[in-house]
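step=encode ok
step=design start
structure_in=
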């Protein structure tokens, strides 16, 4: 069993995604790696990031920005899992 570090939520998400990544075939894993954020979404995140850096986010914007960051982390971990899964498939 994997050890979970209490102050590292990414570790928990990482472990939660392990079973999902094992469900991917090579084509699905490559599609995950090809995921790109819509330019309009990128622009909105950039606006929120700038406002956050200036300390000007409203409570609603802060919640939206945190959701964007969490989603980006989730996608990054999923892409890492897909990359590792493809590497393992290549070795077999």
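sequence_out=
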């Amino acid at each position: 069993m994997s050890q979970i570090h209490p102050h590292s939520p990414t570790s928990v998400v990482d472990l939660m995604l392990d079973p999902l990544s094992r469900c991917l075939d090579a084509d699905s894993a490559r599609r995950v790696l090809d995921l790109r954020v819509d330019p309009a979404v990128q622009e909105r995140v950039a606006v929120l990031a700038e406002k956050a850096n200036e300390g000007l986010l409203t409570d609603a914007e802060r919640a939206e920005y945190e959701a964007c960051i969490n989603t980006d982390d989730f996608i990054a971990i999923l892409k890492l899992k897909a990359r590792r899964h493809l590497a393992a498939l290549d070795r077999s």
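step=design ok
step=annotate ok -> The first helix runs from residue 9 to 22.
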